[in-house]
Amino acid sequence: MSVSDTQGALSGGRSYLAIPGPSVVPDRVLNAMHRASPNIYAGALIDMVQTLIPDLKRVARTQHHVAIYIANGHGAWEAALSNTLAPDDTVLALVTGRFGHGWSEMARAMGIDVQMLDFGRASPIDPNRVEEALRADTSHRIKAVLATHVDTSSSALSDMEAIRAAIDAAGHPALLMADCIASLGCDRFEMDAWGVDVAVTGSQKGLMMPPGLGFVFFSEKAAEARRRLARVSPYWDWTLRAAPGEFYQHFFGTAPTHHLYGLRAALDMIQDEGLEAVWARHDRLARAIWAACEVWATGGALRINMGDPAHRSRAVTALSLPAPGASDLRTWLEANAGVTLGVGLGMAEANDPAWHGFFRIGHMGHVNAQMVLGVLGSIEAGMAALDIPRGEGAVGAAAQVIAKG
Ligand SMILES: *Cc1c(COP(=O)(O)O)cnc(C)c1O
Questions:
Q1: Are residues 330 and 207 part of one domain?
Q2: How do residues 335-387 score in pLDDT, each as one tens digit?
Q3: C-alpha of residue 165 to centroid of ligand 1, in Å
Q4: Is the model's pTM score more than 0.90?
Q5: Would residue 266 count as lying in a domain?
Q6: To test ligand 1's pocket by mutation, which of 81, 96, 99 has the most ligand atoms within 8 angstroms of CB?
Q7: Which of 96, 151, 181, 361 should be mutated for ligand 1, with most atoms under 8 A from CB?
């Protein structure tokens, strides 16, 4: 059967981009952005931005500092590195997929010496190995530990609190820096309680915004590391962004006006629902997806990349479906159901230069039960159309989780 046998007849109406970022932007956010350009020198915008700061910190569970950048996640990565490290400093990079490699490559390009612990593409960070590596660093050359909270390519979720405990057990002074781009607002994250010094995120995942804003949260210890640096490029310097004397210093130039109004609406939505409830919703929806995938997996073709549910993100699920299954399924769903699934990023096997054997379901941000059941039902239809072997009753298993918890 062709991958687009209904020739688009069933894919009209509102489409659903079920990839792990950019995520679905709520109408409330879109409507808040739909307005005439505001004055950037005086008035409502300036007052409104002051309200964003405490609410952003609430989402990251920190009392400390936040700097906002007109940037995507890569910009937030660079900002975090720029404010804490100098060329020839050493970092310990804890890698659980493509994004851990990406942050490491950026550090290397900035002249930073990267010592890497690579946990592969289907395992979380092992805190014991972190402790061992830090104990071996008796001269304390390592200045920071870079950890991906959720690696969006593998959907591995790592335990940041355990990594902090490992750093402390080794008696090591390194900063703990966390990539929370995929996880913030989806998986539980407690910056201060878990002893994270720097947390980076972007606007277009759990924060339900279009791409374009990067956020760097930092502790007093990280602020002290910044003060010890001889120089930081002015655009990335977080000092004035986090404590501006003048409004324009927040953004080192023109404020991202409409994004800021969208962000206000997104933070209102998180506050109205309650952060704990947001995490609980992501947990329930993720478990519904896993329940369906586990049933499909009994047919022998599909496999959840992260075997142990304890190490799975609630924001994204990476799935293996040997080539050409994953690619055909994505194509079929887009053409026949109006659903776009994520490509398998950085998951290629040695003999598969592309990513045809993996796909990902994004379930971060503005997602509810009918959307998840719709995606799962559409995948069921796609598998049926493509004759992909699968266990029976997957969507029913997901419905059971939605119904009973
Ligand atoms: C999306 C993502 C990034 C990259 O963010 P961009 O906005 O695409 O630059 C980095 N790390 C993680 C974990 C991500 O999910």
A1: no
A2: 999 999 999 987 765 555 556 799 999 999 999 999 999 999 999 999 999 99
A3: 26
A4: yes
A5: yes
A6: 99
A7: 181
